[in-house]
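Hi everyone, sorry if this is the wrong subforum. Our group has a chain we'd like a structural model of before ordering constructs, and none of us has done structure prediction before. Sequence below.
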Amino acid sequence: MPKGGLEPPRACAHWLLKPARLPVPPLRPGGNGELWPRYNPKSTLGLTAYTKVPILALQAVDKLSIARNPRARHDYHLLETWEAGLVLTGTEVKSLRDGKASLVEAYAHLRNGEVWLEGMSIAPYLAGSYNNPPPARSRKLLLHKGEIRKLIGGTTQKGLTLVPLELYFKDGIAKVAIALARAKRTHDKREELKRRDAEREMARVFRGKRT
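Answer:
Right subforum, don't worry. Here is the predicted structure as tokens:
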């Protein structure tokens, strides 16, 4: 034992590790923009620097609606729905990203074992010039063979038809929701309007009680 007391502790080898080499778990995003780890090589300690990033920039948009069929649920009983891809040109995709499409006059049907969408209007892309196809041309829908067989069996039944519901981007890919549907009778439409009026009235009364 050295004179004057105990020997001072010696530095251990792991003290020499740089903090930047230690694993730093990422922080989960919260409400108003969060701190996310960003390595800063210019830091004197080599530590991980945290940068505030807006929350909207961190969250990927899974679904972005482009156009809806406003009469679908009013005029039809929807029995079953499917999600289909679309065969589009490059200029049509650019117009869809600008939200320039309409499903008001659109309908779907089967032809030669394939599903086609008719009457959907996509406005010409301004910079597309002669590359723009006709706005309301026929467009092929992409479905699995099993889904197409099911649609063929459904549409052979009397009174059933295919109705487009919504056009949207899903993970950056254009999709359309279609439904096997049966047209409503006038009595059914009146009952539907009465039900919606009653629901709106109940919601109005409930809001009045809360205030």
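For your construct planning: Residues 11-60 have pLDDT under 50 and may be disordered. The CA atoms of residues 90 and 124 lie 11 Å apart.
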